[in-house]
């Protein structure tokens, strides 16, 4: 019943994945909400309030995806670049 | 019907994260759900813990009288600044008043005070020790500074544990709905109840994980938004977020010659919306020509059912109204809806009872999770040292969790047994509660086996649960049949619930003695 050790990753990879899920996941879920608010300025208040609770759901989904990833570096890369792309679009739209 | 399972690698990874995250939060999560379950009935404790107020029939609230009483009670009360009056309800007929006092020179002093309309008395201190203590415990507020954030992150990782739990059991998720059984050894029973109850309570648990995180961690989402779209101007953001943000008083107008009666305006709003009942009022710039009265009326047709109606105090004209089902927008419903879901106040007492049972089921899921974690590792292939450690962790968790219920009975007894002397009373009642929790917990650590712990805590719970109605009877003379005869239903119900808890605890002890429960492996 306990998880089989051979499938679990090494300590270094684990730290990368946890940090990617926790920090990267937070940044990305925030960026997604800010991005939607930027393309629909009229709905800003509603999106802001949705963010106040829905961000936690997205955050934990990204946390799970980070653990599923094969490489901690890769998932950090994906989360950071996605956040950066969204950040640039938000900046341009503002 | 079977669904597609996760591939082996992912299954094992997700399983591992579920185990670790679940174990890390389990102690705090149990306390949060258990104390939270009792907080659902926070208002119902009011008359039980204030025997002096049991003689009053609750009366319709007269705002003009409240305002007159405030003037008599508080010197230099500043009516021109904002006043917020939150009405009580039938169970807790006590109004909260939040306002301001004029000070020498610039600025104001905030004041918050409670008012009992029937006896026309004010209370400066909290007079709901049981409800308040358990309510604050349910977001770990007694831990200075970090408590709320800790509770917030526990809530967040509870969501993580719930979602990973779904992924693990995805393949057999349909069968699990009806899969409960008491067959097999302990490991199977714990596994079975953990998954089946986990599935049945799923919507409830996801709702609490998200709304709990919302209350305690919303700043993580809102602070960046305010920085980005409002240049850090919180007031500007609130104008958009707050449903009443757009309806403002400039506080510049000259003193008014005559003002409308608050009662009259509240009556007018109720005449327009007869299915609603008053919940709270906000008075802005009272005494000036631009004075505004905001009335919040509670409706029962919608989840976010509060209607907000604003009148000018100068001529009583309607300035603004936000009515559910008519013009209440999504953005005005979010907070209202989350409050309704989290506090379970959209379906009366029966809904709260369902909430209470689901919260207890969640506590059971937490306990069975810990036990199945231990039993799954109770095999020959695991080294003795690891097994001993797992055993210690289990014993610690059970002591922490099971000691809470008898400590709550101590909290109820202490409330009536410790003489009422203002501020000190609250301190001693809380000390009795936390100290008994600590002592019961520490004794549990020395009991060495789970079964002895369970017996000990069932015994303590039985004694404590029988003591609560006895203490109320001897201290106030309101035995439960007397309470019912006097129409003090909440008081009588609390005593009867504790009596029933006592009988259930005795029944479980008896079953244990008869060895009707499965044998330990």
Helix content of chain A: over 70%
Radius of gyration of chain B: 26 Å
Which bin fits the share of residues in helices of chain B? 55-70%
Q: Strand order of the main beta sheet of chain B, please?
A: 4-3-2-1-5-6-7-8
Low-confidence stretches of chain A: none
Oligomer classification: heterodimer
Instruction: Summarize model confidence as the mean pLDDT of chain B.
Output: 88
Would you give an account of this structure?
- The complex is a heterodimer of chains A (94) and B (521).
- Chain A is mainly alpha-helical.
- Chain A has 3 helices and no strands.
- Chain A has helices at 11-39, 44-68, 72-93.
- Chain B has 521 residues and is α+β, with helices and mostly antiparallel strands.
- An 8-stranded antiparallel beta sheet of chain B has the order 4-3-2-1-5-6-7-8, with helices on one face.
- In chain B, a hairpin with a 7-residue loop joins strand 5 (277-284) and strand 6.
- In chain B, helix 13 (384-402) packs parallel to helix 16.
- Chain A binds chain B through residues 1-4, 7-9, 26, 30, 33-34, 37, 44-46, 48-57, 59-61, 63-64, 67-68, 90, 94, and chain B through 8-10, 12-17, 19, 156, 159-160, 163-164, 167, 187, 191, 209-211, 213-214, 217-218, 220-222, 224-225, 228-229, 237, 240-241, 329-331, 334-335, 338, 376-377.
Short description:
The complex is a heterodimer of chains A (94) and B (521). Chain A has 94 residues and is mostly helical.
């Amino acid at each position: 019943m306990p998880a089989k050790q051979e499938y679990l990753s090494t300590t270094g990879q684990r730290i990368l994945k946890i940090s990617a899920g926790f920090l990267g996941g937070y940044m990305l879920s925030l960026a997604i909400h800010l991005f939607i608010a930027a393309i629909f300025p009229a709905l800003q208040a509603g999106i802001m309030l949705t963010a106040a609770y829905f961000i936690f759901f997205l955050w934990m989904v990204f946390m799970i995806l980070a653990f599923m990833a094969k490489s901690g570096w890769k998932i950090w890369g994906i989360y950071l670049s996605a956040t950066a792309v969204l950040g640039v679009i938000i900046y341009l739209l503002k | 019907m079977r669904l597609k399972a996760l591939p082996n690698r992912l299954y094992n990874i997700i399983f591992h994260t579920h185990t670790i995250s679940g174990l890390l939060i389990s102690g705090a999560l149990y306390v949060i759900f258990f104390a939270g379950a009792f907080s659902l009935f926070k208002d119902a404790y009011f008359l039980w813990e204030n025997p002096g107020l049991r003689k009053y029939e609750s009366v319709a609230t007269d705002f003009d009288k409240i305002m007159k009483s405030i003037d008599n009670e508080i010197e230099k009360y500043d009516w021109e600044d904002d006043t917020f009056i939150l009405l009580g309800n039938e169970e807790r007929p006590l109004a909260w008043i939040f306002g301001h006092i004029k000070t020498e020179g610039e600025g104001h002093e905030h004041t918050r005070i409670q008012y009992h309309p029937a006896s026309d008395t004010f209370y400066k201190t909290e007079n709901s020790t049981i409800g308040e203590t358990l309510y604050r415990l349910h977001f770990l507020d007694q831990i200075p500074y970090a408590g709320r954030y800790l509770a917030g992150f526990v809530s967040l990782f509870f969501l993580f544990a719930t979602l990973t739990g779904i992924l693990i059991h995805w393949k057999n998720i349909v069968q699990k709905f009806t899969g409960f059984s008491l067959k097999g050894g302990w490991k199977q029973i714990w596994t079975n109840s953990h998954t089946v109850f986990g599935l049945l309570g799923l919507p409830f648990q996801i709702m609490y994980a998200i709304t709990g995180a919302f209350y305690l961690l919303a700043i993580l989402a809102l602070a960046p938004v305010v920085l980005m779209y409002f240049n850090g101007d919180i007031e500007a953001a609130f104008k958009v977020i707050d449903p009443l943000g757009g309806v403002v008083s400039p506080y510049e107008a000259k003193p008014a010659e005559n003002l409308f009666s608050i009662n009259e305006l509240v009556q007018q709003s109720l005449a327009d919306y007869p299915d609603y009942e008053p919940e709270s009022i906000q008075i802005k710039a009272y005494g000036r020509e631009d004075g505004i009265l905001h009335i919040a009326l509670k409706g029962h047709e919608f989840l976010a059912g509060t209607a907000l109606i604003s009148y000018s105090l100068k001529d009583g004209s309607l300035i603004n109204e936000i009515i559910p089902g008519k013009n209440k927008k999504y953005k005005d419903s979010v907070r209202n809806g989350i409050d309704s879901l989290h506090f379970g106040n959209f379906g009366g007492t029966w809904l709260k009872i369902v909430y209470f049972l689901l919260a207890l089921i969640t506590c059971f899921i937490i306990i069975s999770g810990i036990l199945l974690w231990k039993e799954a590792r109770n095999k020959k292939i695991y080294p003795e040292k690891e097994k001993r450690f797992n055993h210690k962790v289990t014993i610690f968790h059970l002591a922490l969790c099971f000691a809470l219920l008898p400590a709550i009975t101590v909290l109820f007894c202490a409330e009536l047994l410790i003489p009422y002397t203002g501020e000190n009373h609250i301190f001693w009642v809380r000390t009795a509660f936390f100290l008994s929790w600590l002592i019961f917990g520490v004794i549990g650590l020395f009991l060495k086996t789970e079964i002895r712990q369970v017996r000990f805590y069932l015994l303590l719970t039985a004694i404590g649960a029988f003591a609560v109605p006895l203490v109320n009877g001897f201290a106030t003379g309101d035995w439960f049949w007397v309470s019912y005869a006097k129409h003090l239903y909440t008081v009588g119900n609390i005593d009867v619930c504790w009596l029933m808890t006592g009988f259930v605890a005795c029944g479980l002890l008896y079953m244990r003695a008869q060895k009707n429960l499965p044998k330990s492996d």
